[in-house]
Amino acid sequence: MTAISSIGNLSVNTLLNATRQANDSAASQTAQTLPAASTQVTLGQAATHSPVYSLAKTITIAPPVSNTQGTLSVKTAGGALVELSQASDGSGIEMNVKEGTLSDAERSALEKLSEGFSKALDGLSGQPPRLDLTALTKFNSAVLKSVDLHATVAGDNKLTLDFHADSNTRSVKSSGAIGTVNISVDMSKRAILGNESQQQRALNQYLKQFDRAQSRGEGDSTLMAMFKDAFTALNSNYSESGTSVKSGRETTYISLTRSDKNMLSGLADFTASLTQTPVSINPTRLGEVDSFSYQVSQASTITGTSDQNRNITQKQQSHLTASFHKALTAGLQLNLTTDRNSQNYFYTQIDDKAESTTEIEYRKGALVSATLDRSASTATRVQKYVKGWLESDTATPQQTSKSTDLLAELQTAWDKADSRMSFADYLRQHSLPDFGDKVLLESDPQAL
């Protein structure tokens, strides 16, 4: 049983962790402390009844940490506006129906979402903080229309978080002393989404790219962990209900085939950035800052007049810029002061770029072109200072590009499978070559 207290004609506070077992010895004491009458909520109608409301199941949520505050605003498909927040006494989660009424399905969905809300707040309160947002993406968009979280962490490790999710977009922005994470996912082009295994493979590949960027640029591990948490959450729990997209000013719906998706990443389009707060640690050269900035994105376009005449382009890009100081002797703690004898160090600057572009073209229903172009470049500049004097300045550029004719690879596989079958039938009916990581972004020139 969960206690309900009236706040207004259209709002209630539901303390989700106020559940007590009916046969508990403390039940009688609890009953004495409740008012003689309260408000029972039935689809938003208020009436005097017993001061309890039965939930489908018991939910117990640990009290939030005091320096973390957050509000989860939810719009339901039925038009209600609901806010979830910590109870003022720290005893659990409070639900306030600001507008409209709730159906049973919406109330049940909100109870489940409250667990994700609590996990998100607990993650922010952790040391180090984490962005635990996956549970907030698992709502049914047919029941809940949108979810918005705003949270802050006070104290020495100040942090703000803004999260949004609806059927078409997901976004996260987190700002704190160590830096900023900003990610947006466009889920409106559902035709480009692959199956679960394809999406997981692409996600794993991107996480590897992020780890490589952190290692290359000496990025902050906590900030990168938060970036990876958010990127994973926003690119999980896709709905595969959509199969087509609009093309052009007039409403023309174009569907993608199995072979089309096999040549794409399988992920929704996104833009993501991580920016570490620059720090100047050398008092004699304030222009030498320790910094880390990373951007990565995917953008897809589908154009044409019909399924028979369509063009698909998907471009993935990444860019890393970083700079950092290191001692001349590995493992030695660097302590730069105005004393010339302390000015012994390497100052490294990184500028890496990567790009992967897939282009697919159909004419009169036939696949006439499918190409993949990938490139990766790294630029490393290392300056060596001994007792404040520049002893060496070395630049090491590296670049690799590679083009692949995906159509030719499909035709080769068709010849080996059964050349008596038409190429179009082969694409529709046979197992296709697994392009796998080949179409995904790769930032290491040596790995292309």
What does this structure look like?
The chain is of the alpha+beta class and 448 residues long. The chain has a domain at 184-448. Helix content is 20%, strand content 43%. The protein contains seven helices and 20 strands. It has helices spanning 27-33, 104-125, 196-217, 221-234, 258-262, 406-418, 423-429, and strands spanning 2-8, 11-14, 38-42, 45-49, 52-53, 68-76, 81-86, 93-99, 144-153, 159-166, 169-176, 179-186, 244-247, 252-255, 269-280, 289-306, 309-327, 345-363, 366-386, 389-405. The strands form four sheets. It has a 13-stranded antiparallel beta sheet. A three-stranded antiparallel beta sheet has the order 2-1-5, with no helix packed on it. Strands 3-4 form a two-stranded antiparallel ribbon. Strand 1 (2-8) and strand 2 (11-14) form a beta hairpin. Helix 3 (196-217) runs antiparallel to helix 4. It starts with a strand and ends in a 19-residue tail after the last helix. This is Flagellar hook-associated protein 2 C-terminal domain-containing protein.
Summarize this entry quickly:
The protein is about 20% helix and about 45% strand. With about 450 residues, the chain is of the alpha+beta class.
List the helices and strands and how they pair.
Elements: E1 2-8, E2 11-14, H1 27-33, E3 38-42, E4 45-49, E5 52-53, E6 68-76, E7 81-86, E8 93-99, H2 104-125, E9 144-153, E10 159-166, E11 169-176, E12 179-186, H3 196-217, H4 221-234, E13 244-247, E14 252-255, H5 258-262, E15 269-280, E16 289-306, E17 309-327, E18 345-363, E19 366-386, E20 389-405, H6 406-418, H7 423-429
Antiparallel strand pairs: 1-2, 1-5, 3-4, 6-7, 6-9, 7-8, 9-10, 10-11, 11-12, 12-15, 13-14, 15-16, 16-17, 17-18, 18-19, 19-20
Helix pairs in contact: 3-4
